[in-house]
Design the sequence.
């Protein structure tokens, strides 16, 4: 079934650790996004990609980095986790429509807690 | 840049009543306005969207209206049911942003039986 998958779903980690949040989609979409969301609060775009080897920073400054080596895979990495990184991270994807905007489909999220 | 304001932040209604959530946007070039519903602990899901060439769109109990002149759009839910309880987010497209969205702060809707 076409979907967006995120792993892990929950992660508790100590300060200073390097972490990678995985996101994969079987939707066949070109565009992918990472959002940061405190529970029940506003979604903030932190990274996006239009396709392979294309990545851009979003509107919210983030110390994380992303890569897009394969169309279906868009991992997010934090080199040194801090308590301020504690949040929920949502991955999303959408079809490429040129200047036409299309629905963004969201993954289930990763809830990150940095101690 | 684009800014989206959403009101109210919380809304409590009795089952069967109507609920209205309003959003305003700042950039007149925005042309796509989706609404997402997020239930507790779950992912946001699109419930309805509208493009700038349309003034109103309906889907069963849900409708969205768009006033381009005033730069605001609203979500209307009629005959509310307890399962409508969730956080609702409006969003507006960032002009020239190739499907980038900016989201409102969300409205927590509670429908009481």
Sequence:
């Amino acid at each position: 079934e076409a979907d967006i998958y995120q792993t892990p779903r929950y992660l508790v980690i100590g300060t200073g650790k390097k972490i990678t949040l995985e996101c994969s989609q079987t939707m066949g979409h070109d565009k992918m996004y990472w959002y940061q969301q405190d529970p029940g609060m506003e979604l903030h775009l932190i990274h996006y990609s239009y396709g392979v080897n294309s990545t851009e920073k979003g509107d919210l400054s983030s110390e994380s980095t992303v890569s897009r080596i394969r169309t279906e895979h868009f991992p997010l990495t934090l080199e040194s986790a801090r308590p301020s990184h504690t949040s929920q991270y949502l991955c999303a994807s959408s079809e490429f429509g040129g200047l036409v905007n299309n629905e963004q489909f969201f993954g289930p999220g990763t809830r990150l807690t940095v101690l | 840049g684009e800014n989206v304001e959403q009101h109210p932040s919380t809304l409590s209604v009795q089952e069967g009543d109507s609920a209205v959530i309003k959003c305003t946007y700042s950039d007149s070039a925005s042309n796509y306005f989706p609404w997402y519903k997020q239930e507790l602990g779950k992912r946001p899901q699109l419930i309805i969207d509208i493009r700038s060439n349309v003034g109103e769109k309906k889907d069963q109990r849900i409708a969205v209206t768009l006033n381009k002149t005033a730069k605001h759009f609203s979500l209307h839910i009629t005959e509310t049911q307890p399962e409508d309880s969730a956080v609702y987010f409006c969003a507006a497209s960032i002009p020239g942003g190739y499907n980038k969205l900016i989201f409102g702060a969300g409205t927590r809707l509670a429908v009481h039986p």
Notes: Chain B has a mean pLDDT of 95.
